[in-house]
Amino acid sequence: MNSLSTANRASAAITGIALLLVVSVTLASVVAVGSDQLQAIPSSYACQDTTASTGGRTDNSVSSSLPAHQASNVALSLTVSETMIALTHEAGPSLRLAMVDMHISVNQEPLLHQPPIPFFAAKGFRSGPYGPFNSASDGIWSVGEQGAIRIAGTNSPQPLPGRFIDITIRYRGCVIGEIGATIRR
I need a surface site. Which of 39, 61, 121, 166 has the fewest CB within 10 A? Predict the structure, then answer.
């Protein structure tokens, strides 16, 4: 006769699944940090702004059905190599780049010139950013897409190896993500 009842076997399976989930999340975090690619999964940022105004810029020709507070469910990953900054949209809703502002700091000092997203040529940045950050893109940043920009020598402070770079992303004026990494060669 079997000493384990059906109820005991079911609770053991649930406990095993929960333990496997915890181990998987922990392992994924360790791998992301070890590969010098950090993933930011922002918590709920309090933001009441749902207008189309972003960072002093108003674009009434672009509308979005995505309220700013829903964009806080976006997950990003960052790779930094000398002057190149690459951000990948890992999860969450697609974003209209006309409503996105990016603020970059090196060792907690803001860049003299911040990137207007999207752009082709901008002061302080090399021309022709990659992916959705390029003004020739469709203007939508979707899951799986990577955008990359290169900081020019005319911008300061310079992103030298060993320094820390911080990036804050705003959508419709609301902070939806903050991510950072140490600059590598």
Answer: 61
Q: What is the CA radius of gyration of the chain?
A: 20
Same domain, 137 and 68: yes
Same domain (yes/no): 128, 165? yes
Other CB atoms within 10 Å distance of the CB of residue 179 = 21
Compute the distance between CA of residue 60 and CA of residue 46 in angstroms, rounded to an integer. Answer: 24
16 and 99 together in one domain: no
Q: Is 172:99 a contact under the CB 8 Å cutoff? A: yes
Distance CA 174, CA 48 (A): 8
0.70 cut: is pTM over it? no
pLDDT tens, residue by residue, 8-19: 555 666 666 655
Secondary structure (3-state) at 17:
helix
Instruction: List, for residues 86-95, the tens digit of each pLDDT value.
Output: 999 999 999 9
Q: Tell me, yes or no, whether 72 and 155 share the same domain.
A: yes
d(CA 65, CA 50): 10
